[in-house]
Amino acid sequence: MKRIFYILILTAVFTAAFTTAPAQEKWTLEQCIDYALENNIMIKQYLLNSTYRENLHEQSKNNRLPGVSANVNQGFNFGRSINPDNTYENINSASTGASANANVLIWQGGTVNNTIKQREFELKASLEDFQKAKDDVTLNIASAYLEILFAKELIKVSESQIEQTRLQLERTSALADAGRVARGALLELEALLAREELNLVNRENTLQIAYLNLAQMLELDDYSNFEIAVPEMPEIKSQSSLASSAVVFDRAVQNRPEIRSAAHQLSAAKMQVKIAEGARMPTLSASAAVYTDYYNSNQVDFGNFSDQFNDNLRESVGLNLSIPVFSRFNNRTNIANAKLQLQGQELELEAAKKELRRQIEQAHVNALAAMKRFTANRTAVESMVESFRYVEEKYSAGRVSPVEYNDAKTNLGIAESDLIQAKYEFIFRSKILDFYNGIPISL
Predict the structure, then answer these.
(1) Residue 234's closest CA among 423, 6, 433, 40?
(2) Low-confidence residues in the chain, pLDDT < 50
(3) Are 294 and 96 in contact (CB under 8 A)?
(4) Predicted pLDDT at 408
(5) Rounded to 5 degrees, what are φ and ψ at 340?
(6) DSSP character for 234?
(7) Which of 166, 140, 284 is nearest to 219 (CA)?
(8) What domains sit in the chain, N to C, each tagged with a CATH number?
(9) Measured on CA atoms in the order 333, 334, 335, 339, is the torsion positive or negative?
(10) What's the rounded Cα separation, in Å, for the pair 69 and 438?
C-alpha cells in the first residue's frame, strides 16, 4: 500500500509540473524582425564595414597631429676610427646615441581636411548601407511571416471543406442505406473526400516549408518547436485607399537609405577631386629634433656618461617647403580619374532614384491589383456560398447529381483560396508602400 501511495504522489507531482509548465512561446512579427536584425550574418558584415569606415575617419582626423619618434643606438668600433674631436686613431671605442624627432604637416593644398571630409561621407554612406540591409531583412521576414499566415488560413479552409464533406458523406450513406440515393453518389463523395484530404496534406507540407524558410532567415539552430503568433489581421474595406506612387516617392527619395548612401558617395567623390587637385600644391611642414651621444674608448677618457650626454646635447627646428615641379603627369591623370569617378557617382545617384521610383510604382500597381482581386474574389465567394448552399439543399433532396455537388464545392474552395491569397497579397503590398513611406512594418 505504501508503495502504491508513493507512486500516486510522484505521479501527481510530475503531472502538476507538466501541466503548469509554460507553453512554447509563439513569435510575433516584431520579435522575428528584432531577432533577425540582431543575428543575421549579412547585417553583422555591414556593421563591421561601418566600424571599419569609422576607424578610417578617426585616423584621418588624427593625421593632423604631429608625428613623434625616438631613437637609441649603440655602436662598437675596432681599429682605425674617428674620435669625437674628428681625429683618427687606431683604437677600440664604443658610442651611444639618443634622439627624438617631431614633424607636423602645416599645409598640403587642403588634402588633410578634404580627406577628413571624404572619410566622413564614406562613413555616412556605410551607415546608410547598414540601414538598407536591415530594411531588406525586415521586408523578407515580413513576407515569410505572411506566407505562414496564408498557409495557415488555407489549411483552415481545407479542414472546413473536409468537415462538410464528411457530414455530407454521413447523410448520403444513410440515404444510400435507405435506398433513396444510388451507391454511386456515395462513391463520388468518398472520392471528393480523398481529394480534399490530399489537398490538406499538400497545404500542411507548404506550411512546414514556409516555417522552414522563416526559421532559416532567422538562422535558428533548433526550430523543431518554432511557431508564430497569429495576429488580428486588419480588415480590408472595399473603399481602402492607397497613397499615390508620386507622393510616396517624394517622401522616400528624402528618407530612403539607398538614396542617402548614393548622395554621400557623391559627396565623397567630390572630395576626392579636391584631394587630387591638392597634390599640385606645395607642401609646408615643420620639424624639430634633439640629439645627444656618449663616446668611450680604451685609451682616452672623454668624460663620464652623464657629462657627455649633457655636453653633447643638440637641438634643431626647421621648416620644409616642397614644391611639385613635374610628376610625370601623375597628378593630371589622378585628377582626370577622380572627375570620372565623380561622374560615375552622379550616375549612381540618378540610377538609385530611378530604381526607387520603379519599385514604388510597381508596388503601387501590385497593391491596386491585389485590392481589385480581393474585392472581386470576395464578391465571388459571397455568390458561391449562396450557390453552394442551394446546391447542397437540392443534393440532400436528391435533385442534384453528385458531380454537380462536387463541382459546386470545388469551385467554392477555389474561390475561398483565391480570396485568402488576394487578401494577404494586398496586405503585403500595402505594407511595402507604408514602408517606403516611412511607416514601420507591423501587424
Answers:
(1) 423
(2) 1-23, 239
(3) yes
(4) 82
(5) -65, -40
(6) P
(7) 140
(8) 25-63+110-281+329-436 (1.20.1600.10), 78-107+284-323 (no CATH)
(9) positive
(10) 52
Q: CA 20 to CA 253: how far, in whole Å?
A: 53
Cα dist from 171 to 43, 148, 177, 387, whole Å: 59, 35, 10, 20
pLDDT, one tens digit per residue, over 266-301 is: 999 999 999 999 999 999 999 999 999 887 776 666
Measured distance CA(38)–CA(134) in Å, rounded: 10
Residue with cell 597631429: 65
DSSP state of 77: E
Read off the amino acid at residue 242: L
Classified as helix, coil or strand, 166 is: helix
Q: The pTM is what?
A: 0.80
Q: Which cell goes with 420?
A: 485568402
Block residue for cell numbers 467554392: 412
Cell numbers for 408, please give them.
459546386
CB 403 within 8 A of CB 188: yes
Is-contact 409 192, C-beta < 8 A? yes
